[in-house]
Amino acid sequence: AAILSEKLGVPHISTGDLFRANIGDGTPLGIEAKSYIDAGKLVPTDVTARMVEERLSQDDAKNGFLLDGFPRTTEQADILEELLSKKGEKLDGVLNFEVSEDVVVERMMARGRAD
């Protein structure tokens, strides 16, 4: 995703990066997300969507963006469509990259995660 965003000249917006940045900055959304992460739970869709919405409002995303990790569900896709519609925008395209479980485990282990 990072290579593609560089070639397209648009920001690569990863939900994992959004979580880490918001938690690191101590934002209200970061504090809320951290409480779920610390409890071993998934961050709820509404929290993730609010982070994505805030990020998409930044200047560098005005001419396009590449989302990584959002949307993951039909509900999240509907929310994204609504967020963009409020701004008078729409998606130009969607790419879905499928990765084998072995590669996912390898990447998680490289990040120091065992879950």
Automatic annotation (TrEMBL):
A Gene Ontology term for the protein's cellular component: cytoplasm
Protein's name in the database: Adenylate kinase
Family: Belongs to the adenylate kinase family.
Entry EC number(s): 2.7.4.3
Lineage: Bacteria, Bacillati, Actinomycetota, Actinomycetes, Mycobacteriales
InterPro entries per record: Adenylat/UMP-CMP_kin, Adenylat_kinase_CS, P-loop_NTPase
Organism the protein comes from: Corynebacterium accolens
Superkingdom field: Bacteria
A family per Pfam: ADK
Coiled-coil zones: none
GO MF annotations in UniProt: AMP kinase activity; ATP binding
HAMAP family given in the database record: Adenylate_kinase_Adk
Recorded catalytic activity of this chain's protein: AMP + ATP = 2 ADP
Cell compartment(s), UniProt: Cytoplasm
Keywords assigned by UniProt, alphabetized: ATP-binding, Kinase, Nucleotide biosynthesis, Nucleotide-binding, Transferase
Primary enzyme class: transferase
SUBUNIT field: Monomer.
